[in-house]
Design brief:
Chains A, B, C, D: It comes from Chitiniphilus purpureus. Chains A, B, C, D: Keywords: DNA-binding, Transcription, Transcription regulation. The structure is a homotetramer. Helix content of chain A is about 65%, strand content about 0%. By secondary structure, the first copy, chain A, is mostly helical. The structure holds a DNA duplex.
Chain lengths: ~210, ~210, ~210, ~210
DNA sequence: TATGAATGAGATTTCATTCAT
DNA sequence: GATGAATGAAATCTCATTCAT
């Protein structure tokens, strides 16, 4: 009846446990949602019994919060370094930014985050605010700088920057979401990278001034 | 009770009940997620007590399924008619298509659907499949025809059609999702329509061949 | 495994339930203590299933608090009326006070309260404060008035009033506690009333001035 | 670890461990009750970690039982010697008995016992029986002898002895209980000894025959 | 038909106890 | 011996669902 006990006893005990539990939780939250994920599921996937997660986290809710704080925010440093690169032109920088975002996050287990945050933000407003302030806004600011820079140099048309940034982000975010959903709006067998390529080609083309095309 | 004069009030609503319950459920599922929404909440928002939904639906799960079948799919007819319009050029048709999508669905309570389906598709695979087959695929097919048409006429560049379709859809879908989330990646005070405008300007520009620009 | 389900279905549903649950809880708390009393025990004794108490009380803790507030405090009015009686002399009044206390509370299920409060006061400080302020202090004040009155009239010796009050209360309180304990310090077959008689005889004798004796 | 110079410290305490654990348990049981006291709390207060008590005691229940057997019963010898004293009159002997009881037990950590036993006797009937037989009954027998002696000599009135004994004990027991409760029925700042004095004055007075007063 | 008290399976969480280190 | 991570039984509490009224 209880699905708590497993046939295992006294496996290793280590400082790796919290990380393992968070990763198990992230996978399951992304798959089933927060509420539909049972603590026992998390424990089982982490290879422990049902009481063990509570040695490391006060509650299920704290697992959720820790997951954002400890798994996601550290990734932010990545984006920062993108702009420190040598000058390669705005279009190339945009390309690099979006592809790095995809390979570093979209192809890791963290790709689950957008789906998770979209679904649960209303239920965990403080965590959502953290995610927004520490992850989305800085990321958008970076992207904005690239676009503004491109406009200033005449590489891009003078489009409304805010809207362009969102238009650029949307496909990447949607791609991550669709990866974790049974409702893909793109061919699930297609290569996400080639989709990104095509998308980039389209919007970069849209950003270019006539002069650059002619 | 007995022959109280308010009895009429109840019978008047009787026919509307199932619809009211589904709408209440849609709102709440979108806000909190399926699992976190209590049957009692649905009942209360529909203006009935907790036993009443069971007169019309076998279970919570059936409410979810009915919601997709009876609230969403009927909307599909809308899109079909879009292409029956007189010939106005591919760009204008694209514009019309996306704006109609937005005003008819994005500005209605149905804008909750993408968030809901993304979050719950894995937990309700049959419903997700229905949604996918009856709503997304036909919609994409419509959009695809518009793009192909535009390419055939020389109005658009010869881009990969599938990817272009997805790139066109992403911002609209994301806009709907963000509307129902505390994690907006766009200025929540901004007018969604002006965002759509800017997005369309960008991608239409990206679709145009050099000749059209020069 | 779960001791929650009982073989009963759809018994009466009434406004009597909360009271029944509180009485069941009082009996069990007094018998086993708060922590050792399971919610299922309370439900079973109240003749309902394990989920029912939660329709009326938010938590086990609230049952405890309500029990004091709703079962005990109303009894206080009793004591108030004792002093309104016609003048019968201080000794007779003392006798009446202590005997009424015993018959009204000591011989009712409320006799469990001293044991319960002594055991749990530290774990529920706010409830303990309520009990202290609303029950004990007023009761002591009443008793104090009787003693002071007796001294003023020359019926009693001029003893320290506070201490006399406590000395008078102790046997009654201990009698209630012993009734609910396996550690009786008096013969459990003895009649509590005859113990009260003897005790009263002793202390009344102790209160009398020489003149009254000689 | 290895040959650290503090190793001595541990071995020095080794022999004292069981006693320290029992004392920690007594304090906590008295404060929170048996069930609400966690083994980890006991360990922590005893200055060890949560596994250590199990080296000395089979279970929490055994700690409770040992506590009574090893901490309390040895104190009983004290009372025995009280009556071996030279003849000083019944009243003085009563006074000595109660004051010694108070100073030896009431002012030690063992004052927690009445509260603890009252609260838990029903949950640990064998321990309660032990406590009753080995502690309370012998104590009452001692007190009874003093009272009977006093009556035989004409120092006390011919009161019912059993009831008098209980009346004499009640205030002392209550005083111990109130010391460990947030529900004191006496001024918590008052000196317990002066309360005992006053109480004794009252009941001794009540015990005296007319002749002794006049 | 509608109500809402009652049900009871199942989820989260606690903690006495074990045992590898 | 001592430690404290891990265990897992058992407790509290929730809520989808039922059904007497």
């Amino acid at each position: 009846m209880h699905d708590c006990p497993f046939a295992k006893r006294w496996s290793r005990r280590k400082a790796a446990r919290p990380q393992e539990i968070l990763e198990a939780a992230l996978d399951l939250f992304a798959e089933k949602g927060y509420a539909a994920t049972k603590m026992g599921d998390i424990a089982k996937r982490a290879g422990v019994t049902c009481g063990t997660p509570y040695r490391y986290f006060k509650s299920k809710e704290e697992i959720f919060a820790s997951l954002i704080r400890e798994l996601v925010l550290p990734k932010l440093a990545l984006g920062e370094s993108l702009l420190a690169e040598p000058d390669v032109g705005a279009a190339a920088r945009l390309r690099t930014f979006l592809f790095t975002w995809w390979t570093q996050i979209g192809e890791s287990r963290l790709s689950a985050l957008p789906k998770l945050m979209v679904a649960e933000a209303k239920n965990f407003p403080e965590v959502a605010e953290l995610y927004q302030k520490e992850f989305i806004q800085p990321g958008q600011a970076l992207l904005k700088r690239v676009v503004e820079d491109g406009i200033a140099r005449g590489e891009f048309r003078a489009v409304p920057v805010e809207h362009a940034v969102q238009t650029l982000m949307s496909p990447v975010v949607m791609l991550m979401i669709w990866q974790h959903s049974l409702v893909p709006c793109f061919d699930p067998d297609a290569d996400p990278r080639s989709y990104l390529e095509a998308m980039l080609d389209l919007v970069l083309h849209g950003l270019m001034p006539r002069s650059a095309i002619a």
